[in-house]
Amino acid sequence: MGNREKWNGKYRDVERKVNMHPPEFLISHADEVLQMLPERPRVLDLAAGAGRNSIFLAERGCHVLAVDFALEGLRRCMRQAAMRGLRVQTISADLETFVFPTQRYDLLVNFFFLQREIFPAIANALNPGGLLMFETYTSRYQAVHKGRSMRREYLLEPGELQASFPGLITLFQEETAVTDRLIAQKPGVIL
What is the pTM of this model? Predict the structure, then answer.
């Protein structure tokens, strides 16, 4: 079974609870981040899954595009958004081949998905003055969570996240016991 079908199966299983609570990092920084952006900012949510971050941001007035390769997760996202009277656009795409538009988004969020090859495209997708919020696991995850195995290529090395976006201005960076968190801004004036 391929990765896509594995994730589709996870979201297709109606008995399985899907976490719809956004990460604490997004919750705790959303207000300050959104204050820095235009009213009704355009947001790209990468590896959106069932849309927990997309819905959270749509509730705060954002125009959100949720991208994930698991169509079943995006269907859950659309159902949840509709039940709340929200609109979230979705695209089912593999982020390895997804064509990122240039200078389209005011905010790009990436939580617990790591594909280093798309880092330049992520930075290019931001409007001048646009913000990146990024959090994912570090190589320390294995030491803290013994018994939970993660492939090395999905784990950041210390300091790697900030160094991966040299063209962006770091506004906030924090390495926790198991994650690296970054808020960075593309230079330029927000229109």
Answer: 0.87
